[in-house]
Each structure stands twice: as structure tokens, then as C-alpha cells.
Write a structure and sequence with these properties.
Shape: globular
Helix content: 25-40%
């Protein structure tokens, strides 16, 4: 073809975006001979005890008659393997008392796919009684996950509520939901299709408290909309949470998304959605059209581990302590190499990232990203996590947040020496581009 023309939908999903840059950084090598410090991306660490658990399970599959052949030669149902959804429902209902069965569980090819389906189920153009109206997804705590920003099929369907924050004297700070601003928006806008939050929050490592989650759920019930809760780093697996005030929670008007990626299976895309059965049926139908079904490997590897409780046991004994230690180490390196500078770290309460605020930065973090990449250090610029300007201008622009263009997301799951050297280089470049450098 001499002239290739894409649809508006095609252009929207192929244009430059933060998530495309992130995935390019994961897959594209730096110039030959340049040391690499991969503090970008969301790839989890390889934890020996987790790897050994899956290797043992895979060896049992390979040695059990025709189990391997059955695994690779059959499609599962569009909503997931029946025995797997049963195992998930039985474990969660038994442990937490949730009123769910397998009809409340669906499996997708990763939670990223799940949210693409969910966002476009609850936002965009709706037709009722011969009339059309448009609905939006509201994110109550911006900055929010980079992978959401471009997932709406229609434009201008995402609205972000800029986070409030509290600064501490120990070079830390914490974001909070501005409930006053959120509730004022909900009162004056009847076009909201859903609320969505991550817990722990990607990129900041913030963990919404139990009271905040219950308050958000109460708002969802009041306006009869779903609260979409992304639990990819949460409890019970992979349990990358470092605070006590974060109990697992599922209730009325909630859609809970989970994943096997951060407990050792990022390459085997397995997302898990818990919701009322009408939503689960819709997800299964969408999955059938888009992908026929979801991959079987993750479900087969994890099913018996979930039934026996071993997956949660390994998360508690090895995964959570591993990342807590890595977080503490990385924070110490930041305090060491940034000493004397104007910086703060978002309080590390979970996930595999630190959110570094550089108040004195004289260039944007997109420009800083380029400077760092020239030294082999890969980070994710903070601007990409601020998205969702209200189309009617009724909310403060996300670009007006004082932390916009001042933060970077750092993945601390890489080997210690690599992370430390990367932090050292970031501090060096920051001092060079500090407004008040000596």
C-alpha cells in the first residue's frame, strides 16, 4: 500500500503515549557498551522461592500422564477455566466471607485487558429510549496508573481529580483523595459511569486506607455506579503492602481486579476480575469476541496453589518481605545521594515503585528522562501519570498540580547495585538541573 489510513480508533491506540514509551524501554536495548540501569517499567523481580514454586508445579504437570497435553490443546471457556474460577471464589469467600461464587469471577489476558473492557463498558456513548448521552470514568486520585490514560475508545471520557497531599519534615509526603472536590463534581455531573482507583497506587506506592475505600464505595452506591478497584499489588496476593490499614475489601457496586503478574508470572498474562454476575457475563462475552478465551498456563499453574493456600503463604513469607526490604534500601540510597537537595519521596506503603519529587528541577521530567537515558538510566516521567482534564473545565487542570513535571517513577525491583548506581546518577543530573544549584 502506498497510503495507509487508520480509523480514528486506530490512530488513538497507535499514537505516542506513556505506556508505549514504557514498553519500548523494556524491549529496546541501549547503545552497545552503555551500562543499563532499568528503573523504569513495571517488571517484578525474580524471587527464588516464587520461581521454585512454579517450577515444582510445572514439573508435576509434565510428569502427570497427559496433563500437559490437555493444558496446551484445549480452549477454556471465554470467562476462564471453570475449576480455576471455582478455586478463586472458594478461597476468597472462605477467607474473607465474601458472598461470591464462580459466576462472580472472570479471567482475562492480564488486568490491562480487563480494564480496557471495563472502561469501555461503563464510559463513552450510551443509548436509552432513543436518546444518546456520554458517560465518563472518574479517577479520584491523580496521579494514577499510566496504562489507563489511553484506554478509552472514545476521547475525553476520563476525568481526574487532582490529589491533595501532606508534606512531612523527613523528606516524605503522602497523597490523599480530595473528597470535597470529588463529591462536588459528582453532585454537578450526572454523566459519571464509574469511579476507578488502584490500591496500592501505581505510580506512587500510596495505599488508600480502609476508610477511604469504604467512603468511595459509599459514593458508588449513592450514585449507583461501579467502583473499579485495581488490586494488582494488593492482598491476598501478591501482598506487596507495607501498612496494616489495608484489609482486602469487596462489596456492593464494586469490581475488583487481581493479577498473577506481580507474584511471578508477568509473561503469562492472567488477570482476575471479581464482580456481580452481570458484569462477569459481559466481560466473558467481550473476551470471546476480542480473544476467544484467555491463556490457560497461568490458571493451571496457580489453581492448586490457590486452593491449598500456598500462593498466599509464599506471598506473605517471601514476596512482601522482599519488596519491603528493597523499598527501604532504595529510600536510604535516595536520602544519601540527594542529601542537601530539595526532594521528597512519597511514603512507601506498597507496590514496587517509589515516586520521587524534585521540587527544584528546572526542566520537565520528560526532558530529565532524555538526560538520564543518555547515561543509561531509564525512569518513567511523571507527566504521563497526570491525565483526565474535565472537558467542561470544571476541575483544576491536572497540569496545574504542583507536582506535575517534578516527579519520576522508580522501579526498585532490579538488582541492588543497579538500583543504587541509577539513584546516584539521577541525583547527579538533578543537581545539574536544579534551579538553586551552587
Amino acid at each position: 500500500m502506498k497510503n495507509i489510513h487508520f480509523s480514528d480508533f486506530g490512530i488513538k491506540l497507535t499514537c505516542k503515549s506513556g505506556i508505549l514509551q514504557l514498553m519500548d524501554d523494556l524491549g529496546m536495548p541501549l547503545p552497545e557498551g552503555m551500562p543499563s540501569y532499568q528503573l523504569g517499567g513495571g517488571n517484578p523481580a525474580s524471587i527464588p522461592e516464587v520461581d521454585a514454586m512454579y517450577r515444582e508445579r510445572m514439573e508435576k504437570i509434565l510428569c502427570s500422564g497427559s496433563e500437559f497435553e490437555n493444558l496446551i490443546s484445549h480452549y477454556d471457556a471465554a470467562g476462564g477455566r471453570g475449576t480455576f474460577t471455582e478455586a478463586v471464589a472458594e478461597y476468597l469467600s472462605g477467607k474473607y466471607g465474601w458472598n461470591i461464587g464462580p459466576e462472580n469471577v472472570a479471567v482475562t489476558n492480564g488486568s490491562q485487558s480487563a480494564f480496557f473492557y471495563l472502561f469501555n463498558l461503563f464510559s463513552g456513548t450510551f443509548t436509552s429510549g432513543g436518546r444518546k448521552n456520554r458517560k465518563t470514568i472518574v479517577f479520584p486520585l491523580i496521579p494514577e496508573y499510566i496504562g489507563y490514560a489511553d484506554q478509552g475508545i472514545e476521547r475525553d471520557t476520563f476525568v481526574g481529580i487532582p490529589a491533595g497531599f501532606t508534606m512531612n519534615t523527613d523528606h516524605t509526603f503522602k497523597y490523599t483523595v480530595d473528597f470535597e472536590l470529588l463529591e462536588r463534581y459528582l453532585v454537578t455531573h450526572h454523566d459519571v459511569g464509574a469511579l476507578c482507583v488502584t490500591r496500592p497506587t501505581n505510580p506512587t506506592g500510596n495505599v488508600l486506607t480502609d476508610d477511604e475505600i469504604k467512603r468511595l464505595q459509599s459514593l458508588a452506591c449513592r450514585y449507583d455506579i461501579p467502583l473499579l478497584l485495581d488490586n494488582a499489588y494488593g492482598v491476598p496476593w501478591p501482598d506487596i503492602i507495607f501498612t496494616e490499614n489495608a484489609k482486602p475489601y469487596f462489596g456492593e457496586n464494586m469490581v475488583l481486579s487481581m493479577s498473577l503478574s506481580k507474584i511471578g508470572l508477568p509473561a503469562i498474562r492472567t488477570g482476575i476480575v471479581i464482580a456481580q454476575k452481570e458484569v462477569i457475563t459481559a466481560l466473558a462475552n467481550m473476551n470471546a469476541i476480542a480473544a476467544l478465551t484467555s491463556g490457560s498456563f497461568g490458571q493451571e499453574l496457580a489453581e492448586n496453589l490457590i486452593r491449598s493456600g500456598k500462593l498466599v503463604q509464599v506471598a506473605e513469607q517471601y514476596v512482601q518481605p522482599f519488596y519491603r526490604h528493597k523499598s527501604e534500601l532504595t529510600q536510604n540510597w535516595i536520602h544519601t545521594y540527594f542529601s542537601g537537595g530539595d526532594y521528597s519521596i512519597h511514603k512507601s506503603e506498597g507496590a514496587i515503585f517509589l515516586w520521587l519529587l524534585m521540587n527544584d528541577l528546572s526542566i520537565s521530567t520528560r526532558e530529565l528522562y532524555i538526560k538520564l537515558k543518555e547515561r543509561g538510566v531509564i525512569v518513567v516521567p511523571g507527566e504521563y501519570f497526570f491525565f483526565g482534564n474535565a472537558p467542561d473545565g470544571s476541575l483544576p487542570p491536572v497540569e496545574s498540580h504542583p507536582h506535575y513535571a517534578k516527579c519520576v517513577r522508580l522501579n526498585y525491583s532490579r538488582p541492588d547495585a543497579e538500583v543504587e548506581q541509577g539513584i546516584k546518577i539521577i541525583a547527579e543530573i538533578y543537581r545539574r538541573y536544579s534551579k538553586h544549584r551552587a
